[in-house]
Specification:
The protein has helices at about 15-40, 45-70, 80-95, 100-130, 135-165. With about 170 residues, the protein is mainly α. Helix 1 runs parallel beside helix 3 (about 80-95) and helix 3 packs antiparallel against helix 4. The structure holds fe (iii) ion (2 copies) and zinc ion. Zinc ion (ZN) binds near residues 23, 81 and 83.
Length: about 170
């Protein structure tokens, strides 16, 4: 089998788009499983709240993707997002660690912001593909999620800067 053997899924932007959507669907599904552990593990009340409200938002993001798949007449499953798998694994390493509560929270935020940036990148591409393929309704739904991921990232930034990083000990 040659390295550049013809792959029918790579023949059109439409096929690539559907594959990218499946990757996002897998990412959101994995995140819905992972976020409750982040909520539980966070020490700061505002961080707990931010994680749990993003969990609810994430369920809606998964539904938006289902709406897009319904309209395309395609199934959303069948692809695993390895990037999200790795990002969640890194976040979970933090859950198992003991230490100063604010330093732990700063570590949880670091992991969560990597997730948000990864999603921002994926949704930016998918939205662009949707509009190039002439699906304005899908582009609008993807844009709505993109906006939520950005807001979640900014909210984590605020919590880190205003609350966590100012209470965490800097050094011994
Ligand atoms: Fe998301
Ligand atoms: Zn992926
Ligand atoms: Fe997110």
């Amino acid at each position: 089998m040659g390295l550049l053997e013809k792959d029918p899924d790579m023949n059109t932007m439409q096929n690539l788009y559907v594959e990218q959507l499946r990757d996002l669907y897998s990412a959101e599904t994995q995140l819905i499983d992972a976020l409750p552990k982040m909520v539980e593990s966070a020490h700061s009340k505002s961080l707990k709240k931010a994680f749990s409200s993003h969990l609810e938002e994430t369920k809606g993001q998964k539904q938006r993707l289902e709406t897009i798949f319904d309209k395309l007449g395609e199934k959303p499953t069948g692809h695993t997002c390895k990037g999200m798998k790795g990002l969640i694994a890194e976040g979970e390493e933090m859950l198992d660690r003991d230490g100063n509560p604010s330093v732990r929270d700063a570590g949880l935020i670091a992991a969560a912001q990597r997730v948000e940036h990864y999603e921002i990148s994926g949704y930016g591409t998918a939205r662009q593909f949707a509009s190039q393929l002439g699906d304005a309704e899908a582009a609008r739904l993807l844009e709505a999620t993109l906006h939520e991921e950005s807001s979640a990232d900014q909210q984590l930034n605020r919590i880190a800067l205003e609350e966590i990083n100012v209470t965490a000990p800097l050094a011994h």
